[in-house]
C-alpha cells in the first residue's frame, strides 16, 4: 500500500498510521503533523496511506480513492463489509511492516477520519496484538451488531479517542455516537468529544489530538 511518510529527526520508536476519508489521499492529512507540535523527543513516525481507487456507487460509480464502496447512505448499510475487510487486511500488512522495522504494535496508534475511521474501528477491536490506541474522527462503525461476537480482549483497555462535529452533514453525529456507545457497551475504553464544526477538523480538536498523543505515546 503506497503512503506518505513523515519521519522524526531521530530514529522513530512509535508510529501513527492515519487513514484518510473518501476521495482524499494520504497527502490530505500529512500537513497536520507540524500543527500537532509534538516534541522531537517523542520520535513519532506518521504514515498516511493512500486508499485504492474504486467505483463508488453513491457517486454514480465514479472512481476515486475509497477504503470501501458506499452503496447507500442508509445508517445500517452505508459501509460495504467486503471492502472494509479488504482494507483492514491491507492496514494489518502495513502494521506488520512497522513491526518488521522495529516498532512494536503497542507503540502504534491507528487513526482514521470518516471512511478511514471506519477501518480503524473495525480492525482495532478484532486485532490480535495490542495497539497503543485508536483515534476515530468524524466516523461511524461498519456492522456494529458483529462486534460482540468478533471482538478480542487484546485491545479492550487501550484508549479510543472519538471526536465528531456537531454540524456534520456527511456523517451525522448520531452515527458517531452510536459507534461510541457500541464500543463502551462491549467493554472498550472509548471517550467521546464533540466540536462546533462540520465534517472536518478544527484547531481545538488538533490541540486535543496533540495532548492525547503525548499521553498515549509520550
UniProtKB/TrEMBL annotation:
Residues that span the membrane, as ranges: none
Keyword Hydrolase part of the UniProt annotation: yes
GO MF: hydrolase activity
Short name of one Pfam family: Abhydrolase_2
Limits of the Phospholipase/carboxylesterase/thioesterase domain: 7-216
Assigned keywords, A-Z: Hydrolase
The UniProt record lists the keyword DNA damage: no
Family the entry assigns: Belongs to the AB hydrolase superfamily. AB hydrolase 2 family.
Protein name from the UniProt record: Phospholipase/carboxylesterase family protein
Organism encoding this protein: Alteromonas naphthalenivorans
Amino acid at each position: 500500500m503506497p503512503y506518505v511518510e513523515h519521519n522524526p529527526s531521530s530514529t522513530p520508536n512509535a508510529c501513527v498510521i492515519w487513514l484518510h476519508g473518501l476521495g482524499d489521499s494520504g497527502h490530505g492529512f500529512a500537513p497536520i503533523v507540524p500543527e500537532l507540535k509534538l516534541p522531537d523527543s517523542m520520535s513519532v513516525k506518521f504514515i498516511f496511506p493512500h486508499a485504492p481507487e474504486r467505483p463508488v456507487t453513491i457517486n454514480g460509480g465514479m472512481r476515486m480513492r475509497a477504503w470501501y464502496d458506499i452503496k447507500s447512505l442508509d445508517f445500517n448499510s452505508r459501509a460495504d463489509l467486503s471492502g472494509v475487510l479488504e482494507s483492514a487486511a491491507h492496514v494489518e500488512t502495513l502494521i506488520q511492516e512497522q513491526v518488521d522495522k522495529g516498532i512494536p504494535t503497542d507503540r502504534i496508534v491507528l487513526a482514521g477520519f470518516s471512511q478511514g475511521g471506519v477501518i480503524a474501528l473495525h480492525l482495532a477491536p478484532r486485532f490480535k496484538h495490542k495497539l497503543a490506541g485508536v483515534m476515530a474522527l468524524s466516523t461511524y462503525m461498519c456492522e456494529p451488531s458483529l462486534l460482540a461476537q468478533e471482538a478480542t480482549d487484546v485491545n479492550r483497555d487501550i484508549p479510543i479517542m472519538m471526536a465528531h462535529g456537531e454540524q456534520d452533514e456527511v456523517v451525522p453525529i448520531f452515527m458517531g455516537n452510536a459507534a461510541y456507545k457500541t464500543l463502551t457497551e462491549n467493554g472498550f475504553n472509548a471517550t467521546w468529544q464533540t466540536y462546533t464544526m462540520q465534517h472536518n477538523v478544527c484547531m481545538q480538536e488538533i490541540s486535543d489530538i496533540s495532548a492525547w498523543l503525548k499521553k498515549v505515546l509520550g
